[in-house]
Design a protein that fits this description.
The chain is an all-alpha fold. The chain is built from two helices and no strands.
C-alpha cells in the first residue's frame, strides 16, 4: 500500500496521517494538515476526482 509513496512532511509517517484523516474527518484533516480551510465537499470538482 505504501510502496513508492513520498511523504513531504517527515514529522509523521503515511500510516499515521491516514489514521488521523479517518479519525478526524476529511474536512478537518484538510483544514489542519493541508492548510485548506475550505471544505472539499463544496468544491466544483468534488465528485469528479476519486482517490
Amino acid at each position: 500500500m505504501t510502496e513508492g509513496v513520498v511523504v513531504f512532511w517527515s514529522a509523521r509517517p503515511l500510516l499515521t496521517l491516514i489514521l488521523i484523516r479517518v479519525r478526524d474527518s476529511h474536512s478537518t484533516f484538510d483544514a489542519e494538515y493541508h492548510n485548506d480551510p475550505v471544505s472539499s465537499e463544496g468544491a466544483i470538482f468534488a465528485h469528479c476526482i476519486h482517490f
